[in-house]
Amino acid sequence: MQSSPRSGDAAWLAQLCISRTGFTLIFAAYAAALPLLVPEWNMSASQAGLIHSAWHLGYLASLFTVGFLADRYGAKRVFLASSIAAGASGLLFALFADGFLSGALLYGLTGLFSGGSYTPGLTLISERFDTGQRGRAMGFYLAAASLGYALALVLTGALTPVIGWRGAFLVNACGPIAGSLLALYALRASPNLVHPLPAGQAAATPLPAVLKNKPAMLAIWAYTFHSWELLGLRAWMPAFFAAAAQLAGRSVTEAASLGAGLAAIAYLGSMTGSVAGGALSDRKGRTWTMLVMSFASLACSLSFGWMIAMPLWLLVVVAAFYSFVAIGDSSVYSTVVTELVPRRYIGAAYSIRSVLGFGAGAISPWVFGLVLDWTRAADSSPLWMWGLAWSSVAAGAILGPLAIWRLRGMPEAALMAGGKR
């Protein structure tokens, strides 16, 4: 049975969202400092991308594990336990990363313990809000993560010239610790629910139960292609802005700081996109919203890199819109899982989705870096380097709308948003 709205829902969601913002501060710190770390750690662009990929691979493993654990032991318990571990691993990365190998290992470890604040958090929201409010509620939760990315970029860009990139990393690493403390407070009265099997249904192995659910798998495949685009964008946008600033005549240090700040401004579009996309899907339908957002973000991916020589203010405007539409359907994919999969298997569905989505997202930054290396070796202009690199983001996302369209035509699509496709 769906839980009905109750008093205190807004305050509960606000506290959970603020804790999510704290958890994500460490996520974007590396991206903000990337223009400085590449020469200091003597890395190629593909190695720099591999460190991003290490984080995503760790995050993938985390999400796969916590989904099943949440089904078995309850989302609240898993959320709180992994949150504490995330705070400790973030500090280890900030204190001891000093090169490509240690950076990849420690950033991967940070990712490994970070998934517990994501899908179990979404499960907690689905347990508290009914379908008429769920898309918007999940949109706020994802918007809180975008706020954390933006704050991390601002903090890193502002603090690095003063206390160095390691000092900035340490400040950002305090975010998961604060998030854990707030989550403990926010969830103090929330029950730890372990959902039983649907009435009259025999026990089934979770993986086959989800894999045989064709509508759910179409949504999961669409999310996979979406993740390739979104995580590639997040990994490389600060470095792209730094390159644009250098092309405009700024020094490397100035460009790195400015790039982080401009990317943070653009990421504010992600905040509004998460909320707007979730609310729009509640009103207009899930697949309708996903199609609109995915086509718009594909158009941005195909064109953004070719704009590198444009004025910085114009790049920020385009990037804000790009961020808005790229994440505008993220909360919708999360909501759809809760509407197409029995409650008992929601954690397993999120686990499968995580393996595919964050697996694609782990490869995307590396491929982006490979394209940069190849075009640089060919002595290409910055326009061709970045134009082709951003086009690789679009290439991995292009099948998403096809999967969404097939889902839209299935009778099970009427289960979403109270019958709104």
What does this structure look like?
The chain has 421 residues and is an all-alpha fold. It has a single domain, classed as MFS general substrate transporter like domains (Growth Hormone, Chain: A, Up-down Bundle). Helices cover 79% and strands 0% of the residues. The radius of gyration is 20 Å and the shape is globular.
SSE diagram, text form:
Blueprint lengths: L8 H16 L4 H12 L4 H29 L1 H22 L3 H13 L6 H10 L2 H56 L19 H6 L2 H34 L4 H33 L1 H19 L7 H16 L2 H11 L5 H32 L4 H16 L2 H9 L13
A few lines on this structure:
This protein is mostly helical and 421 residues long. The protein has helices at 9-24, 29-40, 45-73, 75-96, 100-112, 119-128, 131-186, 206-211, 214-247, 252-284, 286-304, 312-327, 330-340, 346-377, 382-397, 400-408.
The total of beta strands comes to 0
Q: Any low-confidence stretches, pLDDT <50, length ≥5? A: 1-5
Largest sheet: none
Q: What is the rounded Rg?
A: 20 Å
How much beta, percentage-wise? Answer: under 5%
How many domains, as an integer? 1
User: How many angstroms separate the termini?
Assistant: 22 Å
Examine the secondary-structure arrangement and name the CATH architecture: Up-down Bundle
CATH-assigned fold name: Growth Hormone, Chain: A
Q: What gross morphology would you assign? A: globular
Q: For the record, what CATH class applies?
A: Mainly Alpha
The averaged pLDDT comes out at 83
Decide which structural class fits the backbone: mainly alpha
N-to-C SSE series?
HHHHHHHHHHHHHHHH
- Helical content (DSSP H or I, runs of 4+): over 70%
H/I helix tally: 16
